[in-house]
Amino acid sequence: MTKFAVFTDLDGTLLNHHDYSYQDALPAIANLRARHIPLILVSSKTRAEMAHLCQELDIQDPYVCENGSVIVLPKPWVQQFNVDTSTLTDAGECWLAFRGAARDEILTIVKANKGECPFVGFADMTVEDVIACTGLSHEAATKAMQRDATEPLLWPQDGAGSEEFARKLGVYNLQLLKGGRFYHVMANCDKGDSVRYLLSLYQSYYGASVHSIALGDSQNDLKMLKAVDTAVVMPHPDGSYMSDKGLIGELHAPYPGAKGWRYAVEQALQQ
Ligand SMILES: [Mg+2]
Fold first, then answer.
1. C-alpha 16 to ligand 1 mean position (Å)
2. Could you give the CA distance from residue 41 to residue 53 in angstroms, rounded to a whole number?
3. Which residues are catalytic?
């Protein structure tokens, strides 16, 4: 019997754009659980932000945080899958697989190379500062600030000087990604790397190849979508789909958010 693994983005993919609800996806999630198909959440969110969601959805599988820079491997899972822990970091209830530099190292490099750049990082902000520039609740801002492997920078003056700063970071195998509101310093890794890493663990455990499925809606999902057998592109709320020459034979979910997710997962499993 074919083994499957499902990887999914959260915002605008498993979670609705407007209300962050996953309710409409629950039947498909229950179906995956009944068939023992791993469901791996892959997001730009932090471990603190994602741990709660995994608990709510009763997901025992690994999950990928901060855009692929750190993977959380629950200890019972590591034991069951007989994963070598020599390169992992012990974080109490779970092991962490860093795909590059950890945040302490990133902060040291950022500080040493800041020069005259006018940015302010999360490390230099209070919770109130983060609330003021994001509009997050106190609880959400606290979770967003608990970072393992990336540092968001608020960069005034339209990011003047950011290209030169990015060049300096490149020497240390770090990259500077421009997001909606922040620039993000992180290792040279992405969601696709993490998906390949986890697939290799599943494949060695099963002793067989795994049919991989991934669902995403935006540019930072592209490398994940290209790393799997069946890519599912979710529509934006306006009904448009991201397109890319590198995507081949991708499925288009019929609706945005959780409802489209449910249909698309069922369709991808039937293929
Ligand atoms: Mg998204």
1. 10
2. 9
3. 9
